[in-house]
Structure formats: structure tokens, C-alpha cells
Specification:
This protein has 225 residues and is mainly alpha-helical. It contains ten helices and three strands; from the N terminus they run ααααβααββαααα. Helix 3 packs across helix 7. The radius of gyration is 25 Å and the shape is globular.
Amino acid sequence: MANTAAGTSGPRRRRPRKDVAPEVSAPAATGAGKPAAPVGDTRWLNGDELAAWLANSAIMISLPAALDARMQRESQLTFFEYMVLSVLSEQPDHTLQMSDLAARTAASLSRLSHVVGRLEKRELLTRARIPGPGRRTNATLTEAGYEAVVEAAPGHVAAVREYLMDDLEPHELTALRRIGTAVDAAIKRGQRDRDSTVASPNETSTSESAHHYPRRPRPASASGC
């Protein structure tokens, strides 16, 4: 009867061998439901690599969330809104083309447009169409926007120090900068490979532009505000 039942209900399922250890943390290491490459070709993370990845996941996920919550509580700005205003405050005329602003804040144009529209309603910046061919738009920081970023900067620096910098040794800061630069370069290399285009010479890398955010904004007299 057992053979008959097996023949009528399809092929028998093979029981997993008890003497074979599974790949440890393979799906968790990739974070994906499906492997991007054939299983046999996947370079699974070893124990040290997995521990390093999980530790840095906390930086990628928890740190932006903590900065965002603190900035909204103290300055009524999201972390990304502060980034946008800060980048504009670094420009000599407080003006930057939207495509360049998107590159320097590592954002898509659609996300940037949504946030800039929100800041425009609060009169923290303005937008203006650039004459000539194409759909090009400039974003310009207003006086109120400059005052907002100057007021928010000390709290932002305090949060960056508290959540990241003050618990690191000098050699760890050097390693952190090297790691950030390497990751940023790898991401941009992948984007260039996918898009088959050369990045604009006016673009600034995310890791490079991020160094501007905790800096003290220029005095109003020097910036033209």
C-alpha cells in the first residue's frame, strides 16, 4: 500500500540528511528572499564578515532614525531637510541646480522635489526655472532658510558627536573615513555600470559632501544673506 500511495500522489519528498550542516546565516547575510546569483556561486559571509555587516547595519538604519527624531524635536526639521538646507548654505550664492542638489544629498530628483516643495511652502527656499533649453530649475536658500540652518547646526553637531564621534579613537576615525569612502566609491561604480554614463564633474560624492553637514555655516555677512 505504501508503494501504491507514493505512486499515485507524485514523487516522494526526500528527508533532509541529519549529518549535513546547513549554510549558516546565508539568507540573513544577503537580506533577500531570493539569492541574486545561483546558490553555488554565492559568496556567503563568514562569521567575521556577518558580524561586521550587522554592526554597520545599525549605523545605516538606527543612526539616521535617531538623528531624524532628534532634529525634528529640536529644530522642526527632518535630517534630510537639514541636509538640503546645509548644502545650499555652503554655496557662495546659496543657489544650486536641482540635479546637483540631488547628487550632493544622495537623493532621487523625485524625493528631492517633494522635500523642496515642503521647504518652499515654509519659505525656507525658493525655486526658479533656468532660462534656456531643457527643464532645469535652481533652488535658492532664503534668509529664513539660512537662519534655520544656522540655528539647527549646533544641535546637529552635538548629535553627531554623541551618537558617533565621541566614542571612537583617532585610529577608528581614520578607519571609518576609509570605509565610508570605499563604500561610496563601490556604490557609484555600480551606478555607473548600470547606467553606462559618466558622472557629472560637478557632482560631489556622498561621503565628501556629508563632511559639510556638521560644520558651522558661514556668517551671514560673508554669505550675502
